[in-house]
Every structure is written in structure tokens, then in C-alpha cells.
Amino acid sequence: MKKFEFKQDLREVSTKDLAYVGDAVFELYCRVRFSFHSKIVREHVNAKSQAFIFDLVEPFLEVDEREVAMRGRNLKGYRSKDPLYRKATALESVIGYLFLSGKDDRLEKILSFVFKVDDA
């Protein structure tokens, strides 16, 4: 299978779209990681769990990732007053950004923090 290449300038991609892609990538990662065990996947693919993961990841974000996370955290929506939802959206935005930019090693490093949720 040919490696996925996204050729559009990521500065032109809306934060909402980055979060959407990040949400899909995160869910797929969890489904594969947890062998499609729906209960365990649901425990990880929710705002509370993703906010916790974001708190673990945030200190290690690089400058460009911090900028994307800030955009995601400030994204307006019907749940934007919920601090857990805002952090979850920040995480999803970073994941979407890394996926679309082809930074696979960095994406894997960020997603590996899912394992830390199990240890907490």
C-alpha cells in the first residue's frame, strides 16, 4: 500500500477539520490497539480520557504542535464551554495535524500515551 500523502498546506486546513481527522485516527488507533473490544475502546475514546491524555502529552509538544493544540482548545462549538471537551479537541487537532503532515514517528509517540491511561 502506498503511503498516504496530503499535499495541501496545513495552515489552510480548518482546525475543525484537523480535529475531525484526529478523532478518526485516534478511534482507529484505539480500536486496533484494543482488538476492537468496544467497552475498552469507549473508555478511551471520550472527552474525559482524551483530556487526561492531553495533560500527559502537553508538556512534550513541539512549537508547531502547541500552536495547533491552542487552536483546537479555542475552537468554538456547542460544547466549547466544557474544559474536558476543549482539551480533547486540542488532542484531536494535534493528532490530525501529525497524521496529515506525515509525521508518523511523532504521531506514534503521541498515541503511545494511550498506554499511560491504562496505567493510571
Properties at a glance:
120 residues, mainly alpha
Structure description:
- This protein has a domain of 83 residues: Ribonuclease III domain (Ribonuclease iii, N-terminal Endonuclease Domain, Chain A, Orthogonal Bundle).
- It is mostly helical and 120 residues long.
- The protein is globular, with a radius of gyration of 14 Å.
- The model has no long low-confidence stretch (mean pLDDT 89).
Number of strands: 0
End-to-end span in angstroms? 36 Å
Note the main sheet: none
- State the fourth-level CATH superfamily of the domain at 37-119: Ribonuclease III domain
Give the CATH architecture of the domain at 37-119: Orthogonal Bundle
Main structural class: mainly alpha
CATH class of the domain at 37-119: Mainly Alpha
Annotated CATH topology of the domain at 37-119 = Ribonuclease iii, N-terminal Endonuclease Domain, Chain A
Assembly state here?
Answer: single chain
Q: What is the alpha-carbon Rg in Å?
A: 14 Å
Helix content: 55-70%
Q: What is the typical, i.e. mean, pLDDT? A: 89
SSE order, one letter for each helix or strand: HHHHHHH
| Number of H- or I-type helical stretches | 7
% residues in beta strands: under 5%
Shape: globular
Low-confidence stretches: none
